[in-house]
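User: Could you write out the 3D structure of this protein bound to zinc ion? I've included everything you need below.
Assistant: Certainly. Input first, then the structure.
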Amino acid sequence: MSLVIYNTLSREKEPFVPIDPAHVRLYVCGPTVYDYVHIGNARPVVAFDVLYRLLKRRYPRVTYVRNITDIDDKIMARAAESGETIEALTKRTADAYQGDMRRLGALAPDAEPRATEYVGQMIELIQRLVDKGHAYAADGHVLFSVPSMPDYGRLSRKPRDELIAGARVEVAPYKKDPADFVLWKPSADTQAGWPSPWSRGRPGWHIECSAMSGALLGETFDIHGGGLDLIFPHHENEIAQSRSAFGHAIMAKYWMHNGFLNISGEKMSKSLGNFLTVHELLERYPAEAIRLLLLTAHYRQPLDFTQEGLQQARATLDRWYGLLRGKSVQPAEAVPQSVEEALSDDLNTPLAISAVHRLSDPAALLAGANALGLLQQEPEHWFRWTPVGAAGPGDAEIEVAIAARQAARKAKDFKESDRIRDELKAQGVILEDGPKGTTWKRG
Ligand code: AMP
Ligand code: ZN
């Protein structure tokens, strides 16, 4: 089944033909770590995790790199505010990010480079751009010279005046052209900085991804992903840097961008203040329900994040886990064709989910859902999930109550057995009597 993906470069769906079929290479821009990430930030992680799983089924070797930006003005500002060191702040928040993404069922990428570990490579890359006449130093800064690249702007397809306006550039005396962007900037004595040929300073954001992808995946690679908001300027500038430094016609062959996760019709973002962190959501909802909700819309479409959506996702998983409960099911060896076909068409996850709905065979159901990174736990575990800090009985108490109810039923004391059932129900625990005994779930 051939894989087709929408390439932002061509604005078309294209068959996926890897540069080297023996080794497929994927890079996705990760977060800037200074706080818990919000659920919008998790959308690319989950969408590209589905792609990673698919590529791993098809190709003998896949290398997936997802970076962590751990040097940035926002990080410096936050550290200055709280008195925490930058190292402590970024370690704490990067660890929380990785833990939260793992709980959302995202496989660990093959490499998760942190920008601060690659400053040497960034300086080398900037030097190369200077040597080739694509960059110039001025006042301790180094800038990329946009006019040095005749086809700059191919990815975002913006006309020049928009490129300039969109770059949100302050008029800086050291810029030769208003569209030029920063590769290196000087740091004040009190700010984090690294020695370089131009100044003690720090890298611009865009050069980080060119350096890390170049070091870990090579000068050209197959797929580069991220959210829609990264097309310009971030990805446009990554392309300008990597192509100009390495001298190839492409940086990545395919560029994939996820749409926004919205809340009440508005993009979720830190700056608008309308965000929910993954960390707090994971305390209130089962992780797989959050993940399923993220996959209910096609990755390029907007996705509205609502409570009802979460509840529906949970009900869907209740149904699927219900079909597996009490059986010991191994996933079918192959992902069912209906699911594989949907995913092969530019990761059509809503279609794949409806295909999973139609699977009645437990082994096929499990294999189909696993392709989406779902049904990754024992059914009993799923049904026992409880929000953090929830009142109500623990698992052991429930088991004791069920045993007492069994005893009452055996003694034909149905009043008592009903009382126990109703009491549990009032505490949010639902009992189901089946041929193999009584099972329970938290509602
Ligand atoms: P940032 O830390 O803002 O650079 O974001 C990390 C990743 O999350 C990038 O790929 C962004 O495009 C993506 N992202 C940020 N906000 C949203 C959102 N509301 N919906 C979907 N993706 C988002
Ligand atoms: Zn990037």
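Residues 29, 31-32, 40-41, 43-44, 226-227, 229-230, 258, 260-261, 267-269 surround adenosine monophosphate (ligand 1) (CB under 6 Å).
User: Perfect, thank you.
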